[in-house]
Amino acid sequence: MEMSVREARANFAAALDAAAKGEQVIITKNGEPIAELGPPRKKKGGFDFELNERVRKELGLDKYDGPPLDDAWLEEFNDAAWGRELFGLGDDWQPGRK
User: Fold this and answer.
1) SS3 19
2) H or E element that contains 27
3) Which end of the chain has less Cβ packing within 10 Å, N or C?
4) Cα–Cα distance between 52 and 75 in angstroms, integer?
5) Residues of the chain whose pLDDT is less than 50?
6) Residues 6+ apart with CB under 8 A from 88
């Protein structure tokens, strides 16, 4: 949706409703875009599970066709020491500490 500054002032509630529904609202002055109003951006730095799931399905990776994973593998996978070793972190590593 595009609207002038004057229209945006007069119809601010409608512009907010459009943004709340996911639409980008471009506000123009003398025909030139000067601002955008839209839904809030997702936090940066977090993992986007919805995007991950969508990409996995698109690539056909959502179906595991390898050998069955036994309980021993799952126990090792869930062990924090295994994850630290995998990512090259020392045993003294703590989240949030620099």
Assistant:
1) helix
2) strand 25-29
3) C
4) 24
5) none
6) none
